[in-house]
Amino acid sequence: MKKVRSFKKELIYSFLTILFFSIVFLGIFQIYQLSKLIDESKRYQAQATTYLADYIDKYILEHKRVIQTEALRVKDALEAGDTEAIHEELRDIKLNYPGFVNLYVGDRSGKSIVFYPELYTDGTNRENLNFSDRYYYKELVKTKSTVISPVYHGRGGTDALLVSIVSPILNTNGELIGYVLGGLDLNALGEHITERNSGEEGNVIVIDREKNVIVHPSVDTKRDLVNVSNSEIVQYIEKNDEVEGSNYFKLKDPNREEYITYKKIKSLDWTIWVAKPTEAITNTYKDSIVTILIFLLGTAIVMVGVSLFLTNRLEVTLRQLLDYIKNYTNGIQQNAFVTKKREGPKEMEELFYYFNRMIDEVENNKLELLELNKELEGRVHERTVTLRNKNLELRNNHAVLLAVLESMSEGLALINNEKEVEYVNEYFLNIVAGGIKDDLLTLSCVYEQFVALFDIEHDELSAFFAKDKGELKLEYKKQQSKEQKFYVLHKFSVLLDDYKIGEGLLLRDITKEEEIDILKNNLISLTSHEFKTPITNIKGSVETLLRKEVEWEVDFQQELLEGIHEDIDRILQLVNDWMDISKIESGTMYVEREMIRADHLIEKSLDQIPKTLTTNVEFQFNNHLQEGYTFYADKLRVSQVLINLFTNALRYNDSPLKKIDVTLDANRDYTMITVSDNGIGISNDHITKIFNRFYQVDITATRRSGGTGLGLAICQGIMDAHGGEIEVISEIGKGSSFILYFPNKREEE
Question: What is the pTM of this model?
């Protein structure tokens, strides 16, 4: 017989069990939280790496643009031999961009002409030197574009770590007549990077394309030019094609493990990485885990003591209650009731009553506090997001504007008052520039590309640009595109404080609008033809029957009446098609679905094909499902779709023996009906448009068959109302297959 434990032991075991699972769950949760903190630390390190890489890229790019701009500014002075003007230009750059240690302008042979400053840092005067043997000069002569040299220590009076930015000076014929060089102080860049990384435990390392150190915590770049090609980290980064990444490394010198996040600066072919000792990431969390474990152990000991104390008190209370029950029971048996004892249970009930009320009140207050806390957190979060967004908006206003211009679905070009192209977005370049880079695009290139691409004369284009405002409709030349494309070019003035600073060109694709206009014009002709023909027939037949001077035979009268009936049916069908397309357009197409037998529906639809089309026709029904298979759909609407497909298959068929194959199949999700023919087929240019309203492959008045071009649009609308799809597979000269997909899942009406 199982030994029964005391109530005290049961309570102690219950307390300990609850405590054990609580500690386990709390420990698991804390470990999970700590692991999330490690991941968050890695993410912050990756973000810092990306931020520093972007900063370096923007820093070099800004100074590169300064040199490029200066090459344009000193061109006239260089051609005129005005060294004083060149000297003033270089002095202005030095004042505004102190990051340049020195600047000079050289001639086409590589000899320097003007230095600034004129004295080296050691006080020695600069002299005109020949730099034609330098790497950057040779690269400049070859490419005639801005060159950024590898990192080197300054020569001739300065020990700064430099990189040369060299931009060519070209004459109007595009020939090299000189160059502008700026020696950029990379030690200053390193100090900026160190300042932005201050307070972080990680070290920042930057190397150039030849693996020379630009920034490194262990390298004095002011004295040493160190190459780290043999570094394990550098070799790992070189092997990876990814622009950015991260990994753990076990280093020998210093002997420690580091976690690095890197990013390649593609525009400069430089690399930056942030290295943080693994201990800096994990030790804090390990200490936290130890602290948590000690805290949990202490909590367990305290809870054991508390449980013993509480169980003792509860046991005393229960013992008193048992004694009261025993005494009360003995009093009943002996017919001796003790009034004082009877008050005991009432007090216990009252105690529980007020205790429960207190618990309810505490829970209600806790819920209210939780709601208030949740509301407060929401407001704080909303305010934080608002402030962050405003901060980002202020910092990235220029970047956002540039991103908007590049993301436009229209082409945009800005031309200054000197008729120079200041800016073009990606869309304009793709349409007009013909692969020319935006920094090489000129207004004459734009003229040439417009004349080459579009059906327009040079005189007409010149007249448009001579106007202050206006727009010009353009059409691609046939040899430029398989499809007919239309554009409209708008020209507008760009004003700043009521002063015209240039002109803007906006290129917009209006092919869709042109197609709609053509479709509307064709629709008028199409509709008049479709309604005029049966109405003319009806009028002629009625006028014939109304002639009193002729007595017509009964058979002839019957034939005329049957013709009138067919023409009225044709008009009624046209009206019904218009009503159906209106319902589809307004979203009120209604289908009344029920379980219908698929094979019977297909066979009855075949019987409803117009008799005039059934000559020399072979029908074949392939049922891949069991006999009597049913699916959930609108019987009349599905029959309407099938009859339309059968009719098209026969009308657009030039074969001596016309064939229509109907296949019934199903899978887990859909019931499929395939209608195949051996007709003329549909080309790829038309197959994507045949479901458009009023669209017909042949829209001339002499086409092979009547119709408004609404049939397939109605078919697609009916399939959409069923939640299904219609698919087309076709090949010119071999026929077409239309596949109807009806979902097997029964949807609620």
Answer: 0.40
